[in-house]
Design a protein that fits this description.
The protein is an alpha+beta fold and 251 residues long. The chain folds into 2 domains: 20-216, Cytochrome Bc1 Complex, Chain D, domain 2 (Orthogonal Bundle); 220-251. 46% of the residues lie in helices and 16% in strands. It contains 9 helices and 6 strands. The chain has helices at 2-22, 37-51, 72-78, 96-103, 113-116, 124-131, 160-163, 196-214, 218-246; strands at 57-61, 89-90, 135-137, 145-147, 164-175, 178-191. The strands form 3 sheets. It has a two-stranded antiparallel ribbon with strand order 1-2. Strands 3-4 form a two-stranded antiparallel ribbon. A two-stranded antiparallel ribbon has the order 5-6. A hairpin with a 7-residue loop joins strand 3 and strand 4. Helix 2 packs across helix 8 (196-214) and helix 6 (124-131) packs antiparallel against helix 8. The termini are far apart.
């Protein structure tokens, strides 16, 4: 029995290692900005300008953005293009047939992406925050780009003008008798329109918007949940004292 347990543990370790290798590098922790309306609004602007060209958000309507503090007129003036109506859902601008020819398949819908991408490395927000910050040039790929969090990704770097071009810096380490390459940092090849810190902040805003989009009621649910717990604690004290009063004369 002991031998069987050890074998199962060893097998689990191999499988876990394989999953970690397939998933790329360790995920960075995404900043928590879902309660920062200015950050979420900026994320919505980035999403519409850079993500919605190829990806849809078919379960989110434009008028729902009023929940993050935008007025109907602001949405119409800044986030709607062409003949799109404010009550419509966020549909991708790209032709599905062209997308299949260019990328080998339709880009996925992003409405629930932060909820669907959570895993052993962290939350879906952590994954997206890492993914959008670990692109690098790779001339061997059809798009000219690769990604450390998602090796051999079919998607090009949509935000490259903001970030500029970077390349990972590797160092060799010995692990279990083998030399392995580990990413130790990044080298800026060409500058972007943003500084590295500004870009990280912008990606944090974009991820915060996608977190909000995946569950718009999350902040309300947490806030109401806190008040419910406070009420239950208060009521528990009252019930305990009433119970003591009812039974005080009974021995």
């Amino acid at each position: 029995m002991k031998k069987l347990i050890l074998t199962l543990i060893a097998t689990l370790g191999i499988v876990t290692g394989a999953v970690a290798a397939e998933g790329g590098i360790a995920w960075d922790k995404a900043p928590k900005k879902t309660t920062d309306l200015a950050a979420v609004q900026n994320g919505a602007k980035l999403f519409v300008n850079y993500c919605l060209n190829c990806h849809s958000a078919a379960f989110m309507r434009y008028n729902r953005l009023q929940d993050i503090g935008l007025t109907e007129q602001q949405i119409k003036d800044n986030l709607l293009f062409g003949d799109v109506k404010i009550g419509e859902t966020m549909k991708a601008a790209i032709d599905p047939k062209q997308a299949k020819d260019w990328f080998g398949g339709n880009p996925p819908d992003l409405t629930l992406i932060t909820r669907s991408r959570s895993g052993h490395g962290g939350t879906g927000a952590d994954y997206l925050y890492t993914y959008l910050r670990t692109y690098y040039r790779d001339s061997e790929k059809a798009t000219g780009w690769n990604n450390l969090a998602f090796p051999s990704v079919a998607m090009p770097h949509a935000l490259w003008e903001l970030q500029g071009e970077r390349e990972p810096v590797y160092a060799e380490h010995e692990s279990h008798g083998h030399k392995v390459k580990v990413v130790t940092g990044w080298k800026q090849v060409t500058p972007g329109t943003m500084t590295p810190q500004q870009y990280d902040d912008a990606v944090g805003d974009l991820v915060a918007y996608m977190q909000w989009m995946a569950e718009p009621a999350a902040n309300t649910r947490v806030r109401v949940g806190v008040w419910v717990l406070i009420f239950l604690m208060f009521f528990t004290v009252i019930a305990w004292r009433l119970n003591a009063a009812f039974w005080k004369d009974i021995k």
